[in-house]
Amino acid sequence: MVSNILSIYDLLLNLVFILLITLIVAFITYLYNEYKVRQLLPPGPLGIPLMGYQPFFGKDLHKVVTKLGEKYGSVFTIQMGFKNIVVLNDWEAIKEGLHNDALLGRPKTVLFTVGNTNSSASSPHNWQDTRRFSLQVLRDLGFGKGSMENRITDEIRILIKHVDEANGRRFNIHKCLTPSISNNICHLVFGHRFDYNDPKRVAFDLMLETISKKSIITTAFLSAAPLWLTKRMYSTGAINSRKVFETVAGVIRSEISSHKKSMNPNNKFRDYIDGYLAEMEVRQRKDPNTHFTPQKLAEMVRILFGAGSNAVQDSIEWLLLLCVRYSEHQKRIHEEIDSVVGRDRSPCYADRLHMPFTQAFINESFRYKTKLPFNFMRW
Ligand SMILES: *[C@@H]1O[C@H](CO)[C@@H](O)[C@H](O)[C@H]1NC(C)=O
Ligand SMILES: *[C@@H]1O[C@H](CO)[C@@H](O)[C@H](O)[C@H]1NC(C)=O
User: Fold this and answer.
1) Is residue 203 part of a domain?
2) Does residue 298 lie within any of the structural domains?
3) Which ligand has the nearest atom to the CA of 114?
4) Does 249 share its domain with 153?
5) For every one of its 379 residues, what pLDDT tens digit does the chain have, with 9 covering 90 and above?
6) Would I find Transmembrane among this entry's keywords (predicted)?
7) Ligand 2 midpoint to CA 355 (Å)
């Protein structure tokens, strides 16, 4: 009896021992592999095994990265979680990087897959193809042209009406800037704007709010965490509000299906969705495995929508804040507007050529407050 217990005890001890040895060997193998990989990559700080440099990020990731750049040069490696990330830290390096086709792919990270579990990482080729096609469609729709300017001016008129309604009382401009700015993209993507209190508009605004609240660190973490983990966090609601994203995914799906029904292939595209659907049909006829798919369309709509909204809004809110902080500059801007534009018409883009002070103020705000100090990953 006693010897039986002893031998079970022995067995357990042996198992623990074997487990321990296995773990140690695995850990050493991991360190050795990591070391070999790092030998091939640009220099950089080592960080903590398994976690990488993440614990040292602090609040302002871009400042940490700038400091590392002083030590390691303009191209260096940091480890985030299990991933090694090469940082391009100056204009020359970024320009060279973005001219390299091999670096144009997007990783399969949560930013591009949330709410779209079917999404795949986009290969550099597919990404470039989609980008080229999308720019062409957007240009055909007037992106960057006079017709777009007129729409923006109309949308601004509606914004001003809302501001006037406050009647000099305090109000939160953020609440009407979100739908106002985002409606410009809606015109291009969906072919129409949404009223500020349209439930679809409200769902979009809620999503934009959720995205913009996420700090750059969370974004960096999400880009680096393994996909299974981010998906898990997403499905348990630990990141983002899943419901918000799902509502928006539903709205996008319903927009796409109503476009499918109402679109006339003989007419000009009304918007990006029309353009994509037409191209998808052509491509699918040639190649059933084309990367032009309904899922990809939904993803592109979400990307265009997100990218076209938050960045502009952040810039405008910073400009407003800086105008308040530097009221002497605000006064000069006001004078310039009065003398160049006057009070009888809306401003237009061409006016900028006669408004050096306002332009300099805007330019300086971009230098002073970088909107995206840390860009999303590519591979
Ligand atoms: C994912 O793909 C499957 C099969 O292709 C499809 O049935 C499903 O609806 C897709 N899910 C989403 C969220 O697009
Ligand atoms: C502001 O930046 C724009 C775009 O880079 C440039 O064309 C313009 O000359 C700049 N204006 C001033 C006053 O700095």
Assistant:
1) yes
2) yes
3) 1
4) yes
5) 667 777 888 888 888 999 999 999 998 888 888 888 888 889 888 878 777 787 777 777 778 888 899 999 999 998 877 778 889 988 999 999 888 877 877 666 555 454 454 455 566 678 788 889 999 999 988 887 878 898 899 999 999 999 999 998 999 998 899 999 999 989 889 999 999 999 999 988 888 887 766 655 565 566 566 667 666 666 665 565 667 777 888 889 999 999 999 988 777 888 999 999 999 999 999 998 888 988 889 888 888 887 777 788 888 999 999 999 999 999 999 999 999 999 999 999 999 999 999 999 999 998 888 777 777 777 6
6) yes
7) 10
Ligand located closest to 253 CA: 1
Q: Work out which ligand 1 atom sits closest to the CA atom of 294.
A: 14
C-alpha of residue 296 to centroid of ligand 1, in Å: 11
Could you list the residue range(s) of the whole structural domain that residue 88 is in?
Answer: 2-109
From the list 228, 247, 274, 277, the residue with the least C-alpha distance to 113 is: 228
Whether residue 323 lies inside any domain: the answer is no
Q: Based on the domain organization, do 196 and 312 belong to the same domain? A: yes
Q: Which atom of ligand 1 is found nearest the CA of 117?
A: 13
Ligand 1 probe mutation, 118, 231, 248, 284, most atoms within 8 A of CB: 118
Whether 205 and 290 share a structural domain = yes
Instruction: Examine the domain organization and report whether 104 and 184 are in the same domain.
Output: no
Span from the CA of 352 to the centroid of ligand 2 (angstroms) = 10
pTM of the predicted protein model: 0.74
Same domain, 103 and 129: no
Give a yes or no: residue 350 inside a domain. no
* Of the residues 85, 109, 133, the one at which a domain ends: 109
**Does 269 share its domain with 305?**
yes
Dihedrals φ, ψ of 45, to 5°? -70, 155
Query: Are residues 130 and 240 located together in one domain of the fold?
Result: yes
Is the Cβ atom of 118 under 6 angstroms away from ligand 1? yes
Closest Cα to atom 5 of ligand 1: 118
Do 104 and 129 lie in one domain? The reply is no
